[in-house]
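User: Can you model how manganese (II) ion sits in this protein?
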Amino acid sequence: MNHIFDQINQEIKGAQRIILIAHQKPDGDACGSLLAMYSYLQSIGKTVGIFVADKPASYFSYLPNIDSISIDKNIFSRGWDVAIFLDSSDTPHTRVDMSKLASATIVNIDHHISNTLYGKVNFVDAKASSTCEIVYNYLSYNGFVMDKRTATCLLSGIISDTGGFKNGATNLSAMNITSDLIRAGASVGNISSLVGMNKSIGGLRLWGEVLSRIRINKKHNIAFTYIKQSDFRMYNVSEEELDGFIDFLNVIVDAKIAMLFRLSPEQARVSMRTTKDDVDLSAIATRFGGGGHKKAAGFTIDFNAQ
Ligand SMILES: [Mn+2]
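Assistant: Here's the modeled complex, given as structure tokens:
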């Protein structure tokens, strides 16, 4: 493990301008790993930029430096020596025009089993609970003294990707790192309530509507439901109000797989979850051009594609 950390250090040592990138529709792990890495690189005197294709959900406003995340593609014209991709299984899901990074060294730090190893340096550990776990190990390796702000970022990623210490990604190292992050001042209770329990009344009514549409595919034992764009308008809530829904759907004990279809006229974005050890959702998602983990994965069906 440390050998690759040395390679990453080697690339960073020779660089002054470093851009950090994560996947579109950034979750807690994407935002947390970006912002922890941002703090570290600034502490060693680098000029750092952050890009994600979509604005982070408003409930991430508690994360230190969240306003440093840019959704403006013009950031790439500023010229970067190194681009560090975090929590991104491939580059298409970052919606970055890679030709704009032709002269930059690509570093890829991730924990998706479907990662395509697109970097010059790739640190991909599918056993890690989260990208934040890997970033924590990297910062520790470099002797970074953990402060409350950085600990809050990293713990957000672990809480996000372990579903609040409930899903299959919850492992011993995640718990050990969590105890260290708590020691540094981060709060499990605060982060959990800010990220998971932040629904409006309209949002809960929308959940009710989507729950009422659950159907079971008996042949494959799949519980599925759907949401249309117009539903968000009908309940006058933003799309982030549905965040967490697919994990909630995964509580159905009888079903092997839970699926949520987000429908628009152009495409269906499909999220999948399972609690079963004999199901590999990453393999299913990859077949449809998506990716993810064994127990949590997704893909998009483009209705206009031939
Ligand atoms: Mn992740």
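A couple of observations from the model: The pocket of manganese (II) ion is lined by residues 29, 87, 111, 130-131, 161 (CB under 6 Å). The mean pLDDT is 95.
User: Helpful, thanks.
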